[in-house]
From TrEMBL, chain A:
Belongs to the iron-sulfur cluster assembly SufBD family. Pfam families: SUFBD_core, SufBD_N. Transmembrane segments: none annotated. NCBIfam families: sufD. The lineage of its organism: Bacteria, Pseudomonadati, Verrucomicrobiota, Spartobacteria, Chthoniobacterales. Residues 178-409 form the SUF system FeS cluster assembly SufBD core domain. GO terms for biological process: iron-sulfur cluster assembly. InterPro entries: Fe-S_cluster_assembly_SufBD, SUF_FeS_clus_asmbl_SufBD_core, SUF_FeS_clus_asmbl_SufBD_sf, SUF_FeS_clus_asmbl_SufD, SufBD_N. This is FeS assembly protein SufD. Residues 31-171 form the SUF system FeS cluster assembly SufBD N-terminal domain. It comes from Chthoniobacter flavus Ellin428.
From TrEMBL, chain B:
Residues 207-441 form the SUF system FeS cluster assembly SufBD core domain. Residues 47-204 form the SUF system FeS cluster assembly SufBD N-terminal domain. PANTHER family: FES CLUSTER ASSEMBLY PROTEIN SUF (PTHR30508), UPF0051 PROTEIN ABCI8, CHLOROPLASTIC-RELATED (PTHR30508:SF1). It holds the Pfam family SufBD_N. Belongs to the iron-sulfur cluster assembly SufBD family. GO terms for biological process: iron-sulfur cluster assembly. This is FeS assembly protein SufB. InterPro entries: Fe-S_cluster_assembly_SufBD, SUF_FeS_clus_asmbl_SufB, SUF_FeS_clus_asmbl_SufBD_core, SUF_FeS_clus_asmbl_SufBD_sf, SufBD_N. The lineage of its organism: Bacteria, Pseudomonadati, Verrucomicrobiota, Spartobacteria, Chthoniobacterales.
Length: 438, 470
C-alpha cells in the first residue's frame, strides 16, 4: 500500500496532488504522448533552436498536476474573468476544469457553429478532432513540451465555424492557474471553413500573481479557403510562472489569419508560432508585444513558411525591456521552391529601458524561389533623449514621459489588429503592468 | 558589349585551372596523427615551443565535434584521413624571381603575379601548397621597418613580436577548424608595421593549391603598430581535381591604437574546395579594421570575418560579396564583438545565387552591458537569378543596456524584368543585360576594392553569369 493512501486514511483529507513528472498521462489514450515526452531530452544550450535561451530554467520537477478549485475560488475567479463588454461567448477554465460557459447565440448553433469544451467535443465530434487536433508538429524546438501538453490536456476550447458563417462578436476563453506550483494545459482549436469569419481572444491569468506555476498551452488555427480568423492571446501568468505556448496557423487559399500575442506575465515564457501559408493568395499577420521587467525572460520563435505561390506574411514583434529583463526573437521566413510571388516581411523592434536589459534578435531568411519580395529588419535602441526632453519640458515627469513613449511604441502593434475594443482591453492590461512595476 | 570581348573572357575562365607535376621534397603523406605533426616540425626546423603547441592543437581538433547542429551537412563529406597535410619543395623562400624553380614559376607566371608586382605592388608572398616560394618586399617598404615574411620565417626570426600575438586573437580551441590549422599550419604571411608607418601600396599574397587531396592551412598574422596603416590583399586559386580539397586558414589581425588595417580577399577556389576559414581582428583604441571579402569559388565556403572592438572608438567593417553558382554554397558573414564604449561597426553583405547555388549570410553582433554609444549597422541584400537558386540569412544580434543602437536590414529580390527589357530593347542580349544588372547590384561594393581587383571581379561575375540565363 502506498504512503499516500496511508496518509489519506489517517488524516481523512484528499491526497496531495501528484508531481507532474511522476503523474503519467492524464487519461487513457494519452500514453503515447507521455512516452514521447519522457523520451525527448530537455533542450540544451547547443540546440540552435534554443540559442540565447536560459535552458537551465526549464526544470519541470517542482510542478504538480492541476487540482479542481473549490466553490469559493470558483466564484472569485468567475468574478475576476473580465473580458470584453460584448462577446459572442465566453468559457472560463481554472486548473483545466471548465467553470462556466456562456452560450453562443442559439442562431449560431443552429447554423452549425460548434463551440464546445474539448472533452465534450471528443465525444460528439471525434472526426473533427481526429482531423485537426495537434496535427502540425512543433518544429521550433518545443516538441518535448508539445508532447507534455498532448499527454496532459484535459479540456480547452474547440470552435468550428462552418462554411460562409461570420461571427461578428469575439469569442473569449479564460484560463486560470490556481495554487502554488500548479500546472495547466490550455488548448484552443479554431477551425474556420471556407469564407468563415471569427475572432477569438484567450486570456491566460494566475489567481495569485506571485505563485510559481507551469503553463503549457497549444493554440492551433485552421483556415479554409477565404476564411478570416483573428486570434489574440493575452498572456498574464504570475510573475513566477514558467510558460510555454505553441501555435500553428494553417492558411488556405485566399484566407487571412491575424494573430497577436501579448506577453505580460511569466518568469520564463517560451512562445513558438508557425504560419503555414498553404493555399495561394493566403496571408498571415503575426503580431506580438512584450512588456518585460524584473528578471523576466520572453523567448519568441517564429516561422513564416510560404508553401504556395502568391502568399504573403507580415510579422511585427515589439519588445519593451526594463530592469534585468531578457527577450529573444528568433524568426525565420522560408520560401519553398515554387512559392513564387511571395511577399514576406518581418520586423522586430526592441526598446531597452535599463542598462541591465538584454535583447537578442535573430531574424532569418531561407529563400528557394526567385520571384519574391522578402525583407526583414531588426532594431534595438533606447528612448531618444530629445523625445523625453520634449515631453518633460511640457511639465510631464520623467517616469510618466517614459511610459507615454513606451505606450506609443507598443500601440503600433495593437493598432494593426484593427479591433478597437480588443485593442483597448490590451492597452488597459499593459497599463496595469506598468502601474504594478516597482 | 562586342562579342570578341566576351570570347576573351571565355579564355580567362580556365585561369587557375591548370596543374604541374612537381617533385615534392617533403610529403607528410595522407592522414593526420601526432607523427604528422612531428614530421612537419622537423621538416620546417621549428623550435620546440611550436611543436608542443601543435600537438596540443591536434588534441583539441580531435576532441571537438563537427559543427553540424547549425552548419551545412556537406561538412560531413570531408574525409580527414584522405587529406595530405604537408607538401613542400624544401627550399627557402627566394628573394628574386629568377631563383624560383622553373615549374613553380610557370604556375605563377600563368597567374600573372610578377607582372602585377611590377605594376604597383609593394611586396608579394606567393604560396604554393604548403610553403612560400617567393617572397619580396620593395626596398622602400623594407627600409621603413616593415616586416613582410612567411609565417615560418616570422616565428623563427621575429619571435619577440610573433609570440606576443600568435594565437591570441583566435585561440586554438575557437572552433574545430582553427584547431586543425593550429596543428598543421604552414605558410601564410607575417606582417609587422612599425608605429606611424603608412604603407602606401598594398601588400599582396597569392595562394594556390597544386596537388590533389591536398589541404592548405596557411596562417597569417598582421600587426599594425600605433598609428600605422596597411592594406593586404590575398587571392586564391586551385585546379579542378576529381576529389575534394580542403583549405582551412587562420588569419589574425591586430590593430593597435589608431592603426588602420584593410584586408582584401578575392577567393576563387575551384568548385571542389572546402574553404573553411577563421578570420578575426582585434581593434584597439581608435583603430580601424576593414575586411573586404569576396567569395566566388569553392564548393563550400564557411567564413565569417570578425572584429573584436576592444578599445574606445574602435571601428570595424565587413564588406562582403558572395556569388554562388551550381554546386556551390557560400556560407559567409561577419562577427562584430563590441567590447568598449563608442565603438562602431558596419556590415554590408551582398550575395548572388545563380542556377542551383546557395548563398547564406550568417552574422553575429554582440553589444554587452554597460557600454555607451555603440552602434552597429547591418545590411544584407540577396539577388536570386533562377528559380532553383537559394538564399538564407541568419543574423544574431544581442544588445544590452540603454546606450547603444543596432539595426539590421535584409532583403531578397530578383532582377527586375523591366530593367532587362529596357536593355534588350537597346540591343543587348539577355545575358549581357543580366550581367550588367548583376554588376550594378554589387557595384557600390566592388568600388571599394583596389582597382585591379574590381576589374577582375567584374570579369569573374561576367563569366559566372554566362550560360546562366536563357
Amino acid at each position: 500500500m502506498s504512503t499516500v493512501l496511508l496518509e489519506e486514511e489517517m488524516t481523512d483529507t484528499p491526497a496531495a496532488p501528484a508531481r507532474l513528472l511522476s503523474a503519467g498521462p492524464a487519461a487513457p489514450g494519452q500514453e503515447a504522448a507521455w512516452e514521447q515526452f519522457t523520451k525527448i531530452p530537455l533542450p540544451t544550450r547547443t540546440d540552435e533552436r534554443w540559442r540565447f535561451a536560459n535552458v537551465k530554467d526549464l526544470d519541470l520537477s517542482p510542478y504538480l498536476q492541476p487540482q479542481p478549485v473549490d466553490e469559493t475560488t470558483r466564484e472569485e475567479l468567475l468574478a475576476r474573468s473580465r473580458g470584453l463588454e460584448k462577446a459572442a461567448g465566453r468559457m472560463v477554465f481554472a486548473n483545466d476544469q471548465l467553470l462556466s460557459r456562456e452560450v453562443l447565440s442559439e442562431s449560431l448553433t443552429r447554423l452549425g457553429v460548434v463551440w464546445l469544451p474539448l472533452e465534450q467535443a471528443l465525444v460528439e465530434y471525434p472526426d473533427l478532432l481526429q482531423q485537426y487536433f495537434m496535427r502540425e508538429e512543433a518544429i521550433l524546438g518545443g516538441q518535448k513540451f508539445a508532447a507534455l501538453h498532448a499527454s496532459q490536456v484535459r479540456t480547452g476550447m474547440l470552435l468550428f465555424v462552418p462554411r460562409g458563417i461570420e461571427i461578428d462578436l469575439p469569442v473569449e476563453a479564460f484560463h486560470w492557474l490556481h495554487g502554488a506550483n500548479s500546472s495547466c494545459f490550455p488548448h484552443t482549436l479554431i477551425i474556420a471553413e471556407e469564407r468563415a469569419k471569427v475572432t477569438v481572444v484567450d486570456y491566460y491569468e494566475s489567481a495569485d500573481t506571485n505563485a510559481p506555476g507551469l503553463a503549457c498551452a497549444v493554440n492551433d488555427l485552421w483556415l479554409g479557403a477565404g476564411a478570416q480568423v483573428t486570434y489574440v492571446c493575452a498572456q498574464n501568468w504570475s510573475r513566477e510562472a514558467l510558460a510555454f505556448q505553441i501555435n500553428a496557423t494553417v492558411v488556405g487559399r485566399d484566407a487571412q489569419a491575424r494573430s497577436l500575442f501579448a506577453q505580460l506575465g511569466g518568469r520564463h515564457v517560451r512562445s513558438e508560432s508557425v504560419s503555414h501559408l498553404r493555399g495561394p493568395g493566403g496571408r498571415s499577420d503575426m503580431l506580438a508585444l512584450t512588456v518585460a521587467d524584473n528578471a523576466q525572460e520572453v523567448d519568441a520563435r517564429t516561422f513564416q513558411i510560404h508553401e504556395a505561390p502568391n502568399t504573403s506574411s507580415d510579422l511585427l514583434y515589439k519588445n519593451s525591456l526594463d530592469d534585468a529583463a531578457r527577450t529573444i526573437f528568433s524568426g525565420l521566413i522560408r520560401v519553398d521552391p515554387g512559392a513564387q510571388m511571395t511577399d514576406a516581411y518581418q520586423k522586430v523592434r526592441n526598446l531597452l529601458l535599463s542598462d541591465d536589459a538584454e535583447a537578442n534578435s535573430a531574424p532569418g531568411l531561407e529563400i528557394e524561389a526567385d520571384n519574391v519580395r522578402c525583407t526583414h529588419g531588426a532594431t534595438s535602441g533606447q528612448i531618444e533623449q530629445e523625445e523625453l526632453f520634449y515631453l518633460m519640458s511640457r511639465g510631464i515627469s520623467k517616469r510618466a514621459a517614459q511610459k507615454l513613449i513606451v505606450n506609443g511604441f507598443l500601440q503600433e502593434v495593437i493598432e494593426r489588429l484593427d479591433q478597437p475594443e480588443i485593442g483597448a482591453r490590451l492597452a488597459e492590461m499593459v497599463q496595469a503592468k506598468f502601474a504594478a512595476h516597482r | 558589349m562586342p562579342t570578341e570581348e566576351l570570347n576573351q573572357f571565355d579564355i580567362d575562365r580556365t585561369r587557375g585551372d591548370f596543374r604541374y607535376d612537381v617533385q615534392y621534397q617533403y610529403d607528410a603523406g595522407t592522414g593526420l596523427t601526432h607523427q604528422t605533426i612531428d614530421y612537419i616540425v622537423d621538416a620546417k626546423g621549428e623550435p620546440d615551443w611550436i611543436r608542443d603547441w601543435r600537438h596540443k592543437a591536434l588534441d583539441v581538433f580531435l576532441s571537438k565535434p563537427m559543427p553540424t547542429h547549425w552548419a551545412s551537412k556537406d561538412l560531413e563529406n570531408i574525409v580527414f584521413d584522405n587529406i595530405r597535410y604537408y607538401l613542400a619543395g624544401g627550399q627557402k623562400p627566394s628573394r628574386s624571381w629568377e631563383d624560383v624553380p622553373e615549374d613553380m614559376k610557370r604556375t605563377f607566371e600563368r597567374l600573372g603575379i610578377p607582372e602585377q608586382e611590377r605594376k604597383f605592388l609593394a611586396g608579394v608572398e606567393a604560396q604554393f601548397d604548403s610553403e612560400a616560394v617567393y617572397s619580396n618586399i620593395k626596398k622602400a617598404v623594407g627600409e621603413q621597418g616593415v616586416i613582410f615574411v612567411g609565417s615560418t620565417d616570422g616565428l623563427k626570426n621575429h619571435p619577440e613580436i610573433f609570440r606576443k600575438w600568435f594565437g591570441k586573437v583566435i585561440p586554438t580551441g575557437d572552433n574545430k577548424f582553427s584547431a586543425l590549422n593550429s596543428a598543421v599550419f604552414s605558410g601564410g604571411s607575417f606582417i609587422y608595421v612599425p608605429p606611424g608607418v603608412k604603407v602606401k601600396h598594398p601588400l599582396q599574397a597569392y595562394f594556390r593549391i597544386n596537388a590533389e587531396n591536398f589541404g592548405q592551412f596557411e596562417r597569417t598574422l598582421i600587426i599594425a603598430d600605433e598609428g600605422s596603416e596597411v592594406m593586404y590583399m590575398e587571392g586564391c586559386t586551385a585546379p579542378k581535381f576529381e576529389t575534394a580539397t580542403l583549405h582551412s586558414a587562420v588569419v589574425e589581425l591586430v590593430a593597435l591604437k589608431g592603426a588602420k588595417i584593410q584586408y582584401v580577399t578575392v577567393q576563387n577556389w575551384s568548385p571542389n574546395v572546402f574553404n573553411l576559414v577563421t578570420k578575426r581582428a582585434i581593434a584597439h583604441e581608435e583603430a580601424e579594421v576593414k575586411w573586404i571579402d569576396c567569395n566566388i569559388g569553392s564548393r563550400l565556403t564557411m567564413k565569417y570575418p570578425g572584429v573584436v572592438l576592444k578599445g574606445r572608438k574602435a571601428r570595424g567593417e565587413v564588406i562582403s560579396i558572395a556569388l554562388a553558382n551550381d554546386g556551390q554554397h557560400q556560407d559567409t558573414g561577419a562577427k562584430m564583438i563590441h567590447a568598449a564604449d563608442e565603438t562602431t561597426s558596419n556590415i554590408v553583405s551582398k550575395s548572388i545565387s545563380i542556377g542551383k547555388g546557395r548563398a547564406t549570410y550568417r552574422g553575429l553582433v554582440h553589444v554587452p552591458k554597460h557600454l555607451k554609444g555603440c552602434k552597429n549597422n547591418t545590411e544584407c541584400d540577396a539577388l536570386l537569378i533562377n528559380s532553383t537558386a537559394r538564399t538564407d540569412t541568419y543574423p544574431a544580434i544581442t544588445v544590452r543596456g540603454t546606450g547603444n543602437a543596432c539595426q539590421h536590414e535584409a532583403s531578397v529580390s530578383q532582377i527586375s524584368a523591366e530593367q532587362i527589357f529596357y536593355m534588350q530593347q537597346r540591343g543587348l542580349t539577355e545575358a549581357q543585360a543580366m550581367s550588367l544588372s548583376v554588376n550594378g547590384f554589387v557595384n557600390d561594393l566592388v568600388r571599394q576594392f583596389p582597382m585591379e581587383y574590381s576589374v577582375e571581379l567584374k570579369r569573374l561575375i561576367d563569366l559566372e553569369m554566362e550560360g546562366s540565363v536563357g
